[in-house]
Amino acid sequence: MLPALIFVILVTQIPFAITIVISFMKWNAAYPDDISFGTLQNYITVFTDADLLRAVFVTVGLTVSVVLVSAVLGLAIALLLDRKFIGRGFVRTLMITPFLIVPVAAALLFKHAIFNPSYGLVNGLLTTVFGENAPQPDLMSTYPLLGIGIVLVWQWTPFMMLIMLAGLQSRPMDVYEAALVDGAGPGQTFRFITLPHLRRYIELAALLGTIYIVQNFDTVFTMTSGGLGTANLPYVIYQEFFVAQDYGVASAVGVIVVIASLVIATFALRTASTLLKEENS
């Protein structure tokens, strides 16, 4: 294990330690002669700058909404796919496909082929159904965050569905048979048996989804380039580091994102360990 441990430390922990050090430095590439260490100004800037605070709210709002919608849709699809029907394996494979597509490719697909106001699929369908006088909304100009959220929901719903489908297939069927014998209906079995059994799986799916979605950069960069109030924290890190070249502020934002992700990951690991204990018992 020692070589693997050394490799992990070299590629993860040392860069993170360096990032922490830089986050306490006043370091802007535009002023190479004005570099100092031992300042909290970068963190003060993160929590007081209006643009950075807006990015925090965008990140939280986008993450929460995408996780909630993806979890609900994933649960609904998992319940449908848990039933036996002809071609169930093929349908499951199709449902997983969005999760396997490269995020940049998915963002480009939605931006140009679906949401485009001139030749996009959405406006084309509206014209087909309602005629030439149909409304032609420009989603990426009027509601850009909604457009980004739709793409993320489309990509992450299969992930939620996979975890919840695994939970459904691990249900103790003897409990359901006993409930049916006692006269319980579908709604009662879902509320009092299925949902309690799936609680840990839903928590795990939501926590893992939050870890990944809070770090999303590809979709925001590809669809809006952070414009129209869609800049989230990962995009702010890119902008501060590569555009403004303020390495101190960029590192401070990065440290905050990593700490938040570690907190969420801790809850995810605890949930996963609880699941494993339940399965073994």
Description of the molecule:
The structure is a single chain. The protein is mainly alpha-helical and 281 residues long. It has a domain of 183 residues: Orthogonal Bundle (MetI-like fold). The chain is 77% helix and 1% strand. Strands 1-2 form a two-stranded antiparallel ribbon. The radius of gyration is 23 Å and the shape is globular. The two termini are 29 Å apart.
Distance N to C terminus:
29 Å
For the sheet with most strands, the description reads: 2 strands, antiparallel
The number of strands is 2
Q: What is the chain-wise order of helices and strands?
A: HEEHHHHHHHHHHHH
CATH topology of one domain: MetI-like fold
- Derived structural class: mainly alpha
CATH architecture of one domain: Orthogonal Bundle
Show unreliable segments: none
CATH superfamily of one domain: MetI-like
Average pLDDT over all residues: 84
- Work out the strand percent: under 5%
Rg is 23 Å
Helix content: over 70%
Number of helices: 13
Name of the top-level CATH class of one domain:
Mainly Alpha
Strand order of the largest sheet: 1-2
> Which outline best applies?
globular
Write a short abstract of this structure.
The chain crosses the membrane at residues 5-25, 55-81, 93-115, 145-168, 201-227, 247-269. The protein is mostly helical and 281 residues long. The protein has 13 helices and two strands; from the N terminus they run H-E-E-H-H-H-H-H-H-H-H-H-H-H-H.
List keywords for this structure.
globular, 281 residues, MetI-like fold, mainly alpha, single chain, 2 strands, 13 helices, membrane, two-stranded antiparallel sheet
